[in-house]
TrEMBL record, chain A:
PROSITE patterns: ABC_TRANSPORTER_1 (PS00211), ABC_TRANSPORTER_2 (PS50893). Gene3D superfamilies: P-loop containing nucleotide triphosphate hydrolases. The keyword Transcription regulation does not apply. GO terms for cellular component: plasma membrane. Keywords: ATP-binding, Cell membrane, Membrane, Nucleotide-binding, Transport. This is Peptide/nickel transport system ATP-binding protein.
UniProtKB/TrEMBL annotation, chain B:
GO terms for biological process: peptide transport; transmembrane transport. It comes from Bradyrhizobium yuanmingense. InterPro entries: AAA+_ATPase, ABC_transp_ATP-bind, ABC_transporter-like_ATP-bd, ABC_transporter-like_CS, Oligopep_ABC_C, P-loop_NTPase. This is Peptide/nickel transport system ATP-binding protein. It is found in: Cell inner membrane. Pfam families: ABC_tran (PF00005), oligo_HPY (PF08352). Involved in beta-(1-->2)glucan export. Transmembrane domains (TMD) form a pore in the inner membrane and the ATP-binding domain (NBD) is responsible for energy generation.
Length: 329, 342
């Protein structure tokens, strides 16, 4: 098996406060192989976007920081990499697509120029050459009439088309890793289907690895090779996509799957709910973060749960597994 | 009469002036075009469609935040279209609203109890003591602990705020609640809580819902009756069971087909809809879906299809509804995986 392209090791991110730093992401580790799609899934505030931002070096350093851990990408540690070197990597080897394409595009620049800018900046080709490439890229992301669209401003495009422009810009230099943070959440369901198909086709064509961040288990079922489930800043479960959907071991993952499985089954019984809501990172304390909402919580859950490893690299952070078939990782 | 809400021929045309001072004339945008439906007592009627299809505009006309350009809205048999001023304000007691964003729709300077009590005061219901009792009962009904009464909205989580918004809507004992994307902003684990709550409340007091949503899974779970909207018009309408089991309009089929799989085993290449929704300011001639429809022929450009019943109560506006391939069968249009229809 080939070496992973990206290796996140024991990543912790803390929020700077006047008092003790507040942990937002705790001890997160995962790896992405070349050409693989890994989904980071979790609810609002679970730390999935922060994890992505720390990889691409866009954490707001004035309020938060990587407290510990390493992010190894093509043999280099992105945490300790200098700002200038990181800037060279960004857009070239690493690229990111955000949720709201309107706020990530420059409203004053024609979309063709925005794409060309990335190419000129990193490859030093002529402007005319870069613009020609930009039109080719718009064509690649299936924007009809690419030449005309290239000379339009973002507000003249629909939401779905703007997201295609973002994808074209991200893929302009054939990055090894594409990070997509909720790329279809703001889009209608028929347009979501188009954009997901596009991302997957381009991954296949160029062998790009994809780190896809989503709250939507339907998107995970469509796209993922591997899945990392986050809850309140920690990984609760990590497995291949079939392992998650067929043999979820963590009560939180099971709860999430129960809710969407039932919704889509067409059976209209009472939905299984996860009681309560996500705790604030300030009041987390020690032990399993999910224990107040967990139907299977035991006294031992007040201590940090062990990370257990099952078949096919299926990892679960839960005391329940101790009694079952899984063994400590 | 069992109809709580009867909407007939409802139309909303927004007019915008073009150019400086409107020098280049006016442009009409048909946001809602001749929409009719009935919401029965104790039932849930869902309007489903994508952004810009007019579903929210219909909700706003039903509660009369917006005056219809044409058509009528009857609530409990009474014509709301002709009401105005104080009479309208009083009658609004019968129809209340739950909004999408529980962070934006609650007054941040009022306590939870004040927020729920306000409608009671507005409609002059009860005295101070009975109002307080009623607020306590509403807190129980929506599952908010009594000690939350003195809290301000920002002390509550998203799910708790949505419970508060529902308590406020229930306070004045309306016959109908219009819920516009009421669970869209909530996390998955909270969404189930609120959907259960809406069903519980309906079972207890027999209230009707007009539920507006883009989320087909939620609609399928909640709806008794459903209307699918595209570009301001209803393209298919009927009992939810019938519509989801045998969608007759190519757009409904495409919508159902676009919903992601619920298991990686059911991944498939989607014959996704081509293109995007045209602008409501320049509607296509004939059938408004024809520019994206895989089955479109000449007639679709010439005449707008009328709503026709396919089975009792299940109607569709499509020239080719009778000759489309069986739903789920391979054909030029989107096919549907078994798990989405089972």
């Amino acid at each position: 098996m080939s070496a992973p392209l990206l290796c996140v090791e024991n990543l912790s991110i803390t929020l700077n406060t006047r008092g003790a730093p507040v942990p937002l992401v705790r001890n997160v580790s995962f790896a992405i192989d070349p050409g693989e799609t890994l989904c980071l899934v979790g609810e609002s505030g679970c730390g999935k976007s922060l994890t992505a931002l720390s990889i691409i070096g866009l954490l707001d350093q004035s309020v938060m920081q990587v407290a510990s851990g390493r992010i190894l990408f093509e043999g280099r540690d992105l945490v300790t990499l200098g700002a200038e070197e990181l800037r060279k990597l960004r857009g070239d080897r690493l690229a990111m697509v955000f949720q709201e394409p309107m706020t990530s595009l420059n409203p004053l620049l024609r979309v063709g120029e925005q794409i060309a800018e990335v190419i000129v900046e990193h490859r030093g080709v002529s402007e005319a050459d870069a613009r020609r490439q930009a039109v080719g890229l718009l064509d690649l992301v299936r924007i009809p009439d690419a030449r005309r669209r290239a000379s339009e401003f973002p507000h003249q495009l629909s939401g779905g088309m703007r997201q295609r422009v973002m994808i074209a810009m991200a893929l302009a230099l054939r990055p090894a890793l594409l990070i997509a943070d909720e790329p279809t959440t703001a889009l209608d369901v028929t347009i979501q289907a188009q954009v997901l198909t596009l991302i997957d086709d381009l991954r296949r064509e160029f062998g790009t690895s994809v780190l896809l961040i989503t709250h939507d288990l339907g998107v995970v079922a469509e796209m993922a090779d591997r899945v990392v489930v986050l809850y309140a800043g920690s990984i609760v479960e990590q497995a291949g996509v079939n392992g998650i959907f067929d043999a979820a071991a963590h009560p939180y993952t099971r709860g999430l799957l129960g809710a969407i499985g039932q919704l889509n089954s067409g059976i209209r019984d009472r939905l299984v709910e996860i009681p309560g809501s996500v705790p604030s990172p300030v009041s987390l304390g020690t032990g399993c973060a999910f224990r107040q909402r967990c139907g299977a919580a035991m006294p031992v859950c007040h201590s940090e749960p062990p990370l257990l490893s099952g078949a096919d690299e299926h990892l679960t952070a839960c005391w329940l597994g101790k009694a079952g078939a899984m063994v400590p990782a | 009469m069992s109809a709580v809400l009867e909407v007939s021929g409802l139309t909303q045309i927004f007019t915008s002036r073009q150019g400086p001072f409107g020098l280049f004339g006016r442009r009409d945008l048909r946001a809602v075009d001749d929409v009719s439906f009935v919401v029965a007592r104790g039932r849930t009627f869902c309007l489903v469609g994508e952004s810009g299809c007019g579903k929210t505009t219909i909700g706003r006309m039903v509660v009369r935040l917006l005056r219809p350009t044409a058509g009528s809205v009857h609530i409990n048999g009474e014509d709301f279209g002709n009401l105005s001023g104080e009479t309208l304000r009083r009658k609004r007691q019968q129809v209340q609203m739950v909004f999408q964003d529980p962070f934006a729709c609650l007054n941040s300077r009022m306590t939870a109890a004040e927020i729920v009590e306000e409608p009671l005061q507005n409609f002059g219901i009860g005295d101070a003591v009975s109002r307080r009792r009623k607020v306590a009962r509403l807190f129980d009904q929506v599952g908010l602990p009594q000690h939350f009464r003195a809290r301000l909205p920002h002390h509550l989580s998203g799910g708790q705020r949505q419970r508060l918004g529902i308590a406020r809507a229930l306070a004045a004992d309306p016959a109908l609640i219009v819920a516009d994307e009421a669970v869209a902003a909530l996390d998955v684990s909270i969404r189930a809580q609120i959907l259960n709550l809406l069903k519980d409340v309906q079972r207890e007091i027999g209230i009707s819902y007009l539920f507006i949503s883009h989320d087909l899974a939620v609609v399928r779970y909640l709806a008794d009756d459903v209307a699918v909207m595209y570009l301001g018009a209803i393209v298919e309408q009927g009992p939810a069971k019938a519509v989801f089991a045998a969608p007759a309009h190519p757009y409904t089929r495409a919508l159902i087909d676009s919903v992601p799989a619920v298991h990686p085993r059911n991944r498939r290449r989607r014959a996704a809809l081509e293109g995007e929704v045209p602008s409501a300011a320049s509607l296509p001639s004939g059938c408004r879906f024809r520019t994206r429809c895989p089955f479109a022929t000449d007639i679709c450009a010439q005449a707008a299809p009328a709503m026709t019943e396919v089975t009792p109560g299940h109607a569709v506006a499509c020239h080719h509804a009778g000759s489309l391939p069986r739903f789920g069968a391979p054909g030029p249009g989107p096919a549907v995986a078994p798990d989405a229809v089972a």
